[in-house]
What we know:
This protein is α+β, with helices and mostly antiparallel strands. Helix content is 56%, strand content 19%. It folds into two domains: 132 residues, no CATH class; 77 residues, 2-Layer Sandwich (Alpha-Beta Plaits), CATH 3.30.70.260.
Amino acid sequence: xxxxxxxxxxxxxRLILALVLGGLIGLERETVEKPAGLRTHTLVTLGAALFxxxxxxGFFGSGADPARIASNIVVGIGFLGxxxxxxxxxNVQGLTTAATLWTSAAxxxxxxAGFYLGxxxxxxxxVIVLIPFKALERRLPRRGLATIEVLLVDEPGxxxxxxxxxxxxxxxxxxxxxxxxxxxxxxxTLAVRLPARLTRDEVMGALGDxxxxxxxxxxxx
Length: 221
């Protein structure tokens, strides 16, 4: 492999830059105890930078398409990112970490290609999105997710009455499960999405007023 096109110190600089920039993103993920943290993000950017250097220094001018390695970095990182995503009840978690891994690969590719300004600027913007934007996101009104368990007398039309009450409060029902009948009672478990300004007490009070409802339990998320 001919690496004369770039001096050894420039190659080393690009790898170190990728390591540092990936570490900055990974450090934030580590502090919030995400599954992919400091080491994972650092290795992603470092690996992407090295693949880019191999593509540029090893295959450029050889007749092969040097862009194929970079394009496969984008595809390959998707499998790693998918491993950080999981479903818990009605919540899907890990999407932000998957996105930071994908962006870290892009930053590493930029560093390996010598696009220093793009790599550094992208890292700064990622940190801004992860920290200040998170505080802003908490202030925005949003539709909350919750799980509600309702114990009620097993009578015809009960589920319809529950749905009518929730619909009147603009509550979306995402999923419904019903337990087996026991002592003429059933338990309905509802995964719901609430409007931003609707309180838990309002929902529980409305459900508690439905004929035949004997108990309402609330679970966040």
